[in-house]
Write a structure and sequence with these properties.
Number of strands: 25
Organism: Hesseltinella vesiculosa
Number of helices: 13
Distance between the termini: 43 Å
Pfam family, one: Intu_longin_1
Biased composition (Low complexity): 304-317
Structural class: alpha+beta
Number of domains: 3
Largest sheet: 6 strands, mixed
Domain CCZ1/INTU/HSP4 first Longin: 25-155
Family: Belongs to the CCZ1 family.
């Protein structure tokens, strides 16, 4: 539910700069009204607060009080909790991840300042607040992703407060301080990295919040599953296995892992992988600088070395100097002929968590390798379909991440028990696990999987010449895209390193198209609140691109319809949605699922330049286009 108000524009800034100012976070807080029992201790309900400038305590309380008042007022008009409040200058976002706990952030809107002349010819400063540049679903999704990651690493906030006494109405101060410390430690290193101007990051990282899966041949998948079973037989403590490639695509996960847990684990594993790559780059840079310094010192020592014999004559001196100078080895001047300054870290396998190797500097400044333990605990949902998920029914595991020589990331989960603790302290455990992962047949299998990935990139590049599209499956959380660069890498940004976009290249679509894609997604959600409804939506962006969204139900829906927006030739491009009659029967047949028809669906979004294709072509060939895209995005 969104609430709008009309705050007056304030042009009273001293010297505002002209041009565009991106949206920024004003403040963020986590609070629980139940933690303050009287007006004297209302500040106790604030578990965490941060702002982009120093805020007095009374202002903090006013902001939290306003947030509670808005939530209370909105609850009288809707049974759904308030999520967004629009004002002239700000966007307020709310999320209740658990009963009693609230995440609340305020984002200052982007600003466009420009000079215009009034009818009298005088210059006038016009300030425009860009409300449409922020999307409610993307902002709400950002808070939801934040909570999922916090719960993965800490468990639920309710469990942290009432672990031993679930019926206790007021936790003790020690538990509250422990929760406050966990929240601060988690959000302080993440929240100020949010980039609200990157709509592509928010769209693909929060709204869809998917698990991009790499398509591989079924035979290779079954062989990888056999490797998982063989590892489990050798080490029964390893309950779950997860394999990602170096770009973050899911290769394999144990069937016992819940998809939502896979999604959260993937984000955290990529964070550790990014940190590892950054450290490797710094280490290589230090090595290069050290080698360059040693080479410089050797050259300086050589030229400053005194002559051992006096010259007989000036001519002999000149001849001797010339002869000696020409014998110096030529230093390479062309960087292309020298080896890469950052060697590929794929030559050796390495554990990223558990018992790891780390480089430290001794008192002489020399680097040496030490072995230490880096224990990472995560909390996963172990409920099944017969036992619905419970908010507090999380199981604590220890996460072991191993990078194999081919840069595939193998992750293993052990239950947090005394036996597991003893196992993690045994170097033989890591040696044996590495030998299982790096067996010749497993290395051969991963090589074939790498070839599957390369073949998929080639197909994707062929299709991307004509269409930009992405495919999202609601049941498996899979997301694939044909928006690729010249190397076949997906240009779509995904969230990693606690909210930072992974370092791919330019976004696949400009913001106006991304906003239209979000609107198409919203049209599907609004028209299908309780089950199958609209199947197709057509619209056109202000940059003259067709945007087509199609929802495919894997169980035949009882009612099918289409919606599209196509302005008349005399009208300017717009995004109005109209529903023409649907006289074509649906004959799509895809895989069956145990999910109900309202939740077992896939979505395909296609973007094509209006100059390359007409609406009539889309209407006539939409089924053919979708099937060809599905053939490319999947491997048998």
């Amino acid at each position: 539910m969104a609430i709008h108000d009309t705050t007056l524009i304030d042009n009273g800034s001293d010297a505002p700069s002209l041009g565009l100012t991106p949206p920024v976070l004003s403040y963020f807080c986590v609070y629980n009204p139940c933690l303050s029992q009287s007006e004297e201790n209302t500040k106790d309900q604030i578990l965490y607060y941060t702002a982009n400038k120093v805020i007095p305590a009374d202002v903090k309380m006013k902001q939290v009080g306003l947030a509670q008042a808005l939530v209370s007022v909105a609850s009288t008009f809707s049974s759904q909790p308030t999520q967004n409040v629009h004002s002239q200058k700000n966007r307020m976002v709310f999320l209740q991840p658990e009963p009693g706990f609230w995440f609340h952030m305020c984002v200052e809107l982007g600003i466009h300042r420009r000079q215009i002349k009034d009818p009298k010819g005088n210059e006038k400063l016009v300030t425009e607040y860009l409300d449409t540049e922020l999307n409610d679903h993307a902002l709400s999704g950002l808070l939801q992703v934040a909570y999922e990651q916090f719960k993965l690493l800490n468990g639920t906030m309710t469990w942290m407060l009432y672990e031993d006494d679930p019926q206790d109405t007021m936790p003790n101060r020690q538990r509250i301080r422990s929760l406050m410390h966990a929240i601060e430690e988690f959000f302080s290193s993440w929240i100020w990295k949010w980039d609200f101007a990157r709509l592509d990051t928010l769209l693909f990282g929060t709204v869809f919040n998917s698990v991009p899966t790499q398509s591989i041949h079924r035979a290779n998948y079954l062989r990888l599953q056999a490797v998982d079973q063989r590892i489990h037989q050798q080490y029964p403590l390893l309950h779950h296995c997860l394999v990602l490639d170096d770009k973050g695509s899911l290769i394999y996960h144990s069937p016992s892992l819940q998809l939502l847990d896979v999604r959260s684990l993937r984000k955290y594993i990529l964070k550790r992988w990014d940190a590892y790559l950054l450290e490797e780059k710094k280490r290589c840079q230090r090595t290069m600088e050290k080698q360059a310094l040693e080479k410089k010192e050797k050259a300086s020592t050589y030229f400053s070395k005194p002559s051992q014999s006096a010259p007989v004559s000036s001519a002999a001196s000149i001849e001797s100097t010339t002869s000696h100078t020409t014998t110096l080895p030529d230093l390479p001047t062309n960087e292309s002929t020298s080896p890469s300054p950052f060697p590929d870290p794929a030559h050796d396998g390495e554990f990223l968590t558990g018992m790891i190797q780390d480089l430290v500097q001794d008192m002489n400044g020399e680097e040496r390798t030490v072995v230490k333990q880096d224990i990472v605990r995560v909390y996963l949902d172990t409920s099944s379909e017969s036992q619905p998920a419970c908010m507090d029914a999380l199981t604590e595991y220890i996460l072991i991440i191993y990078k194999d020589p081919g840069n595939f990331l193998w992750s293993f989960l052990l239950p947090s028990t005394n036996e597991a603790q003893e196992t993690l302290g045994d170097i033989d455990f890591y040696t044996g696990l590495e030998q299982l992962v790096c067996q010749p047949d497993t290395r051969s299998l991963m090589t074939m999987i790498s070839q599957d990935v390369k073949n998929m990139k080639k197909k994707t590049m062929a299709v991307s010449k004509h269409y930009k599209c992405f495919y999202y499956d609601h049941a498996s959380l899979d997301l694939k895209s044909t928006a690729v660069d010249s190397q076949g890498h997906v240009t779509m940004h995904t969230m990693s390193a606690y909210g930072c976009p992974r370092p791919f290249v330019d976004p696949p679509f400009p913001n106006d198209i991304l906003l239209q894609l979000l609107q198409v997604k919203l049209d599907f959600e609004v028209s299908n609140p309780c089950g199958p409804g609209t199947e197709e939506v057509y619209t056109r962006s202000t940059t003259n691109h067709w945007i087509i969204g199609k929802r495919i139900y894997h169980q035949q829906p009882p009612i099918a319809s289409k919606e599209y927006s196509t302005p008349d030739s005399d009208d300017p491009p717009g995004d109005d949605h109209q529903a023409p009659p649907d006289d074509s029967p649906r004959q799509d047949s895809f895989h069956t699922s145990t999910l109900d028809a309202g939740s077992d669906f896939s979505e395909i979004y296609l973007v094509a330049a209006k100059k390359d294709i007409t609406m009539a072509d889309i209407e006539d060939n939409i089924q053919k286009i979708i099937r060809s895209l599905l053939d490319v995005l999947h491997t048998d």
